[in-house]
Structures are given as C-alpha cells and as structure tokens.
Amino acid sequence: MRSNSSSVRPIILSCVAVVALIVGLIMGCSSFEAIPAGNVGVPTLFGNVVEKAYSDGMHFPVNPLYSWTLYDCRQKNLDCPQIQVPTKDQQTSQIDFSVQYRIASTLCPKAKSEIGNAEDIVSVRVLPNLRSLVRSEGKGVARCEDLFDEAVQAAMEVNLQSRLQQKVGEYVVIEAVLIRNVALPEHIKEAIKSKKVREQKAEEQKAELARFETEQQQKVKTAQAEREAAEEEAKKVTVMADAEAYEIKAINAALADSPNFIRLRALDTLNELSKNPATQLYFLNGDSPDPLPLMHLGAPVTK
Fold first, then answer.
1. 79 lies in which domain range?
2. Can you give the pLDDT at residue 14?
3. Which long-range contacts (CB under 8 A, 24 or more apart) does 152-159 make?
4. What is the CATH number of the domain that holds 60?
5. Residue 87, SS3?
C-alpha cells in the first residue's frame, strides 16, 4: 500500500503543475489587451465601469477579468436623409443632411456610464436633437424655395452646428452640419418650373426685341449715311453748276468786251469744219475782213 501511494503522488503533482501552468498561461495571455488604431477602450468589471480610458495600442498588464467596449474616436460622417423641414409659408420640404462628428476620447468612460456605446451616443444625442433643431431653423425661412438660396443654406449650417453642439453636450464634438440635397413639395416644383419657362420666354422676347432695335438702328444709320451722301452730291452738283454758270458769264463778258474773241471762235469753227470734205461753206460778204460762214446755205432741203 505504501508503495502504491508513493507512486501515485508524483503523478498527481505533475497534473497539478500542468494545470497550474495552463492556468498561468491563460492568465498571462489575458493580461494583454490590444486597442485598434483610432479607438478608445473602456473596461468594465462585473458591470462596473472602470474610470480609465485605454488609448489605441498594446496594454499590459490588464485585469484579465475586464470586459471591453470600444469607441471609434475618429471623424465620422452621419447621413440624415429626408428630414422634414417646415417653413413660414406652411410648406414642408425634405432636406438631406450630413453631420461630421467625433466622440470625445477622454469622456468615453463617462459616456459608457451615462449613455452607452458609440451607437447609443449617436441615436440618443445626435439624431433626435438634429431633427428638432432642423424644424426650428426651417420656421425662420420665409418661403420653401428660399431653401435653395446659398446664403440661407450657409446660415442654417452654421446655426445647426452651434446649436447641435450645445444639445449633444460634451460627449460628441460636432465639426460640421452640411446640407446635401433639398426636395421641395411637388406642386411648388411645378410652379417653379412654370415660372422658369415664363422667364425663359420673356428673355427670348427681350433678346428678339433687342435684335429688332439693333436692326432698326442700323437701317436708320444707313439711311442717314445715304442722305448725307446725297446732300454732298447735291452740293457737288451745285458747285459744278455754279462754276459752269460762272464760266458762261465770263464768256459772255468776254464777248461783250472783245470782238476778237468772236473772230477766234469763228476760226476755230472753220478749222473743225474744214476737216470734213463733205462740208459746204458759204460766206456772207466774202470781201469782209471777218467773213462768217453759213453751213449748207442754199442746199436742197431733204426730209
């Protein structure tokens, strides 16, 4: 009996050592905790939140009995489509918003105790307050079509960012609230479309009227230029007529003052007539020193 108990005893000790080694290895591995990049780990022990936030990276040693909740503290974008926005004209439009935010890393343990995980923070603090504030901002807009105005949109974005930050508290940092799309009521869209068509037709008519006025102005300028040209031509004709009248007047004056001028013109005429052999010349008083020719005097009359 003594020999049997002495042989079993080493086996039991070996098993205990193996179990202790395995438990030690498990406990040693559980003493490490790796937090992903951009995240914060919040541990809980038996349902109680540990008042310490673990940043990203490897942590050792840690209590192997901890349960971990991760909070992604990187910048996030929350899409909030088709939020109802009433305006002063008693019309309701739909606007798609985007909220750029991040969770405050140092307050994750407090957020875990008071609100919950990261999804709870968004669903409890961000979305309900955003919808309420959007309706409040919309009531300050006179007409629903003013929601397309860039200045109105910019003012809404700034106001919503500031007011939403006050509402969500310290757990979330609201970096921006952006308007993505605006959808007006159908009857308002049809009315705006009809208005745009009328405005386009009015612009076309205005352009046609401007073109017609331009053409008429060109015609007036052309007629004015033609009239001025005619006046200049008339002045030219008048000047030429005056010159010719002056020449005739000068010739008449010369005839009156110089008998020799008549002789000169008669000689010029005789010179021209003598070039044609068919010309018949007759003279009155051929003995006169200034005979005047008479063409075809005495020639038979032909019909």
1. 31-184
2. 63
3. 153/179
4. 3.30.479.30
5. coil
Q: Give domain status of residue 22, yes or no.
A: no
59 assigned to some structural domain: yes
Task: Let me know whether 288 and 177 are in one domain.
Answer: no
Say yes or no to pLDDT of 24 above 80.
Answer: no
Q: Is residue 15 part of a domain?
A: no
Mean local confidence (pLDDT), 155-168: 94
Q: Is the pLDDT of residue 147 over 50?
A: yes
Q: Label residues 243-280 b or e (16+ Cβ within 10 Å = b).
A: eeeeeeeeeeeeeeeeeeeeeeeeeeeeeeeeeeeeee
For the chain, how many structural domains are there in total? 2
- As given in the structure block, the two tokens for residue 93 are 């439009």
Looking at 184, 207, 239, the residue that finishes a domain is 184
Kind and range of the H or E element at 111? helix 108-114
At 176, the pLDDT band (50, 70, 90 cuts) reads very high
Q: 295, 270 in Cβ contact below 8 A?
A: no
- pLDDT confidence tier of residue 85, bands split at 50, 70 and 90: very high
What are the phi and psi torsion angles at 295 (to 5°)? -75, 135
- For the chain, report the end-to-end CA distance as a whole number of angstroms: 189
Q: Please state the pTM of the whole predicted model.
A: 0.56
- Looking only at the bridges linking them, the beta strands covering 92-103 and 57-59 are unpaired
Q: What sign does the CA torsion over 30, 31, 37, 43 have? A: positive
My answer on whether 45 and 180 are in the same domain is yes
Specify if 251 maps to a domain.
Answer: no
Structure tokens at 252: 């008449």
Mean pLDDT of the chain: 80
Q: pLDDT, tens digit, for every residue of 91-144?
A: 999 999 999 999 999 999 999 999 999 999 999 999 999 999 999 999 999 999
Q: How far is CA 48 from CA 44, 66, 67, 68, 294, in A?
A: 5, 10, 10, 11, 153
Q: Tell me which amino acid residue 220 is.
A: V
